[in-house]
Design goal:
The complex is a heterodimer of chains A (736) and B (151). Chain A has 736 residues and is an alpha+beta fold. In chain A, 25% of the residues lie in helices and 25% in strands. Chain A folds into four domains: 2-29 and 475-573, Aldehyde oxidase/xanthine dehydrogenase, molybdopterin binding domain (Aldehyde Oxidoreductase, domain 4, 2-Layer Sandwich), CATH 3.30.365.10; 34-130 and 205-248 and 253-279, Aldehyde oxidase/xanthine dehydrogenase, a/b hammerhead (Aldehyde Oxidoreductase, domain 3, Alpha-Beta Complex), CATH 3.90.1170.50; 136-193 and 288-351, Aldehyde Oxidoreductase, domain 4; 366-466 and 594-733, Aldehyde Oxidoreductase, domain 4. In chain A, the strands form seven sheets. Chain A has a seven-stranded mixed sheet with strand order 3-7-1-14-11-12-13, with helices on both faces. Chain A is globular. Chain B is globular. In chain B, helix 2 packs across helix 5 (139-150). Chain B has two domains: 2-77, Ubiquitin-like (UB roll), CATH 3.10.20.30; 85-150, Orthogonal Bundle (DNA polymerase, domain 1), CATH 1.10.150.120. Chain B has helices at residues 22-29, 85-93, 102-115, 121-127, 139-150, and strands at residues 2-7, 10-15, 48-51, 54-57, 70-72. The chains are: A alpha+beta (736), B alpha+beta (151). Chains A and B meet through helix 3 and helix 15 of A and helix 2, helix 3, helix 4 and helix 5 of B. The structure holds FE2/S2 (inorganic) cluster (2 copies). One FE2/S2 (inorganic) cluster sits between chains B (96-101, 133-136) and A (197, 248, 498).
Chain lengths: 736, 151
């Protein structure tokens, strides 16, 4: 079923996204394109220290500067002084202490952006610099950064040590069960940034009655509202959050950025206030992917059957909790990859430090563990003399098998199929020399004619869950207004962040209602209930479910009433999940994760071992995508997700010293360009998910989970080096 | 200071700060927000415009330097309501996800195809390597450029 089929489409527009034309014309309104009459510009005063006591804040000079309308600090926050996605541990504005480099300390509103910037510079903050905790290994022996119990939650394993955000254990079977071979290793993952192209922006408008409207690029309008309102001492209805155009997200817009700040300034000045971060500020304006240290030990029989896996996973959560507890849980749940292993012991820990805060990023904990676990599988294959693909097929987890958390897979998980199909993709022959330098490592730098270039082929498999887990009440609301003539308005607050969920919604509504006359009224908290977050590869599934339900009920209601206008709002929930047992990490019900998606990837690289330069030549992947509603959009997710994994494998890392970010810009934080990305051959394995509407699966995360591991596997093949840390640096592959 | 320039064929004036970029002047003074600001450092190409027919990163050009010159932005490419062929190809090939990179890529692609109407894949990749896209992995953009060239 394609979008064209769904929409009974007008031929010329059927394959175009509904927002494609405004986007190519430059007319699509991103958050940073919004303006309002009488608008002021907000700016944020940020800490230059990763850890310091705030001794005093003097705003008097800034307040007197031309064009300045307000300078606000912690004392001006009328309601709750802290907020947070899972735990309210982050100050709206710092009071007595800053815990990370770039933490917000004061905010300014002025007529012109330049005036706001200058006024922010004129706010005098006196700090007493404290020793930052920057080594996650030592966090639990350091002085606590937050009061004890900040992240205690019923159902978490108790751990009295300081700076523990969450500790968990996943254990089953007999970890000492007899085996023939053992391989172990220590792996490290650096800190990756989402680097969405459109920096954080938004516009807050006071409504004149004490409330506020916030237009913002976000992933979940309703949970923004629920965090903002208490800090403003307002009722939730007085804060209306509207989705503005989003320039990419990848997890980095799950947490609040400028929402409360702009609203505070708007309410104080009685004027609309716009805040727009520049790239440098964006690097401290959102959370990042958790850096990880992982120790793994795999034991197997001579024939290659996995007997046991032990892992210790340490994630650096940075200064505030964000969604660290869930990232850790995912890392532990999917740590061993899509393999059936009876005996498991996984110890996970995520800690507070004074490093940049970490939270959601595409792949959500599974990226880090996939890198470690797949390296282990390659090592095991080498140690046993078994083909790496065969070893993976032999141990593949399929329906009927158990996850590390004891959950039996009941839905779709075609692990063997994706492995077979990825392995069957024909790889290109080595290209002869001499050839155009663009197709050599070093590219346009013209650094080699091909001498010293070695080729390698790698393979990896990755999987993760779809939707929210562990008993979270995960739902999506949709509202359908049908007029007497059959025209429909569909309301759903699901955040379109570029992935195309709004086309899914329109397609489902057209199909269910049997009309093309459907208008999508997007995401405002004022018009419709929560859609949940655009994350966890859940939005296509959940929005399709909610819109389908609302459409069917609207038609039924209209028929019952004998025609006329109807307006129905419906809530869709996926099958219930249950918490993990805090002592064993085993599921306490039928399942803790609702469904899964798996991808296998084959990669060809060339490495110039004289200069340490790398070129990814070709990527082929087979991915379990459920029923692909729109194959072009699915491929787009696979290609884009793969590029982000390539970035983590080869170049992307936020570098810090004493907690301060050293490379908060695109000159020093490198991302894949057109020349870095090889062709990606995507083989879509379409097996409908039985529990999902239309059999869909989320598709955005598996390619990011698997590609880092697959690329490094190919680099190991080319160089024979261990390459236990990503991003792989030139020094790691040079001088063979 | 006051500047006078031609933008998308129209004579325009703006009152700008001495240090203000052409990008800021276009977006915030001339109400042409189609050119995007993603880095302000010449690294991403989101702000690409044509200055006297030559593509530039408008974040690196001072507004004052554009005084007396001719600028074309993404908003100036469509003719009489019809999409420019490059715009149409991007829409048709699935080259647009979040779309934040799109205006800059369209300006850069238009420039490429005017210089080289039938580019090879390597030529395309090199010509557009100054434009970052975080969403697509570039594959569908390559398709779009080929499609535009074929049309
Ligand atoms: S904003 Fe001009 S190059 Fe990035
Ligand atoms: S489509 Fe989002 S940055 Fe290119």
């Amino acid at each position: 079923m394609t979008t064209a089929a769904l929409s009974h489409g007008r031929a010329e527009t059927a394959t175009r996204r509904h927002d494609a034309v405004p986007k190519v014309r430059g007319e699509f309104a991103y958050a940073n394109d919004l303006r309002a009459a009488g608008m002021l510009w907000g700016h944020t005063v940020r800490s230059p220290h990763a850890h310091a006591r705030v001794v005093s804040i003097d705003t008097s000079e800034a307040a007197r500067m031309p064009g300045v309308h307000a300078v606000l600090t912690h004392d001006d926050v009328p309601g709750r002084k802290t907020y947070g996605l899972d735990f309210p541990d982050q100050p709206v504005l710092a009071s007595d202490r800053v815990r990370y480099f770039g933490e917000a300390v004061a905010i300014v509103a002025a007529e012109e952006p330049e005036q706001a910037r200058r006024a922010a510079e004129a706010v005098r903050v006196e700090y007493e610099v404290l020793q930052p905790i920057v080594d996650p290994e030592r966090a639990t022996e350091s002085e606590p950064l937050h009061p004890p119990g900040t992240t205690a939650r019923h159902g978490f394993r108790e751990d009295p040590r300081p700076n523990v955000v969450r500790a968990m254990v996943v254990t089953r079977g007999d970890i000492e069960a007899p085996a023939d071979v053992t391989v172990s290793g220590v792996y490290e993952v650096g800190q990756q940034d989402q680097a969405f192209l459109g920096p954080e922006s938004g516009l807050a408008l006071p409504d004149g009655e004490g409330g506020v409207d916030i237009h913002v690029a976000t992933q979940w309008t309703h949970v923004d509202r629920d965090q903002v309102a208490p800090c403003l001492a307002l009722e939730p209805e007085q804060v209306r959050v509207h989705l503005a155009g989003v320039g990419g997200a990848f997890g980095g817009r799950e947490d609040l950025s400028m929402q409360i700040h702009a609203a505070l300034l708007a309410l104080r000045t009685g004027r609309p206030v716009k805040m727009a971060y520049n790239r440098q500020e964006s690097f401290v304006g959102h959370i990042h992917r958790h850096p990880a240290r992982i120790w793994a030990e795999h034991r197997a029989t001579k024939a290659g059957q996995l007997v046991s896996v032990r892992m210790r996973i340490l994630l650096d959560g940075g200064a505030y909790a964000s969604s660290s507890e869930a990232v850790l849980s995912n890392a532990c749940s999917f740590a061993i990859g899509p393999y059936a292993v009876e005996n498991v012991e996984i110890d996970g820990l995520v800690v507070y430090t004074n490093n940049p805060p970490c939270g959601a990023m595409r792949g959500f904990g599974a990226v880090q563990t996939c890198f470690a676990a797949e390296a282990q599988m390659d090592r095991l294959a080498a140690g046993l003399g078994i083909d790496p693909v065969e070893l993976r097929l032999l141990n593949a987890l399929e329906p009927g098998g158990r996850l590390a958390t004891g959950q039996v897979i009941t839905g779709s998980l075609p692990t063997r199929e994706v492995i077979r199909r990825a392995a069957a993709l024909p790889i290109p022959e080595p290209e002869e020399l001499p050839r155009d330098v663009l197709r050599l490592p070093g590219g346009a730098g013209n650094t080699t004619r091909g001498e010293g270039v070695r080729r390698g082929v790698g393979f990896a498999v990755g999987f993760k869950n779809l939707c929210y887990s562990e008993g979270f009440d995960d739902y999506c609301t949709a509202r359908v207004r049908l007029s007497a003539d059959g025209a429909a308005e569909v309301y759903c607050a699901s955040a379109e962040v570029g992935q195309g969920v709004h086309d899914v919604i329109l397609g489902v509504a057209r199909r269910e209602l049997g009309t093309d006359d459907v208008e999508l009224v997007t995401g405002s908290t004022a018009d419709v209930g929560s859609a949940g977050s655009t994350s966890a590869s859940r939005m296509t599934w959940m929005a399709a479910g909610a819109v389908q339900l609302a459409c069917r009920d609207a038609l039924e209601e209209q028929e019952r009433a004998g025609g006329g206008e109807v307006d129905v709002e419906r809530v869709y929930r996926h099958p219930r999940t249950f918490p993990l047992d805090p002592e064993t990490g085993q599921t306490t019900g039928e399942r803790s994760h609702v469904a899964f998606a798996v991808a296998a990837m084959r990669v060809v690289v060339e490495v110039d071992v004289e200069l340490g330069l790398t070129r990814v030549v070709w990527i082929g992947t087979a991915q379990d995508v459920g029923n692909a509603l729109n194959p072009v959009a699915v491929e787009g997710q696979i290609e884009g997700g793969t590029a982000q994994g390539l970035g983590l494998a080869l170049m992307e890392e936020i570098q810090t010293r004493d907690g301060a970010i050293l490379n908060p810009n695109f000159t020093d934080y490198l991302m894949p360009t057109f020349l870095d990305m090889p062709p990606v051959v995507s083989d879509l394995v379409e097996e409908p998910e039985p529990d999902a509407p239309y059999g869909v699966k989320g598709v955005g995360e598996p390619p990011t989970v698997v590609s880092t591991a697959a690329i490094v596997s190919a680099l190991r093949d080319a160089t024979g080096r261990e390459l236990a840390r990503v991003p792989v640096r030139p020094d790691d592959v040079v001088g063979l | 200071m006051k500047i006078a320039l031609t933008v998308n064929g129209e004579a325009r004036e703006a009152d700008v700060w001495a240090g203000e970029s052409l990008l800021t002047a276009l977006r915030d003074r001339l109400e042409l927000p189609g050119s995007k600001n993603a880095c302000e450092q010449g690294e991403c190409g989101s702000c690409s415009v044509l200055l006297d027919g030559v593509p530039v990163c408008s974040c690196l050009v001072l507004a004052a330097q554009a005084d007396g010159h001719e600028i074309v932005t993404v908003e100036g490419l469509a003719r009489d309501g019809d999409l420019h062929p490059v715009q149409a190809a991007f829409a048709d090939a699935g080259a647009v996800q979040c779309g934040f990179c799109t205006p800059g890529l369209i300006v850069a692609t238009d420039d490429l195809l005017r210089r080289s109407p039938d580019p090879t894949d390597d030529e395309i990749r090199e010509a557009l390597s100054g434009n970052l896209c975080r969403c697509t992995g570039y594959a569908k953009i390559l398709d779009a450029v080929r499609l535009a060239a074929a049309r």
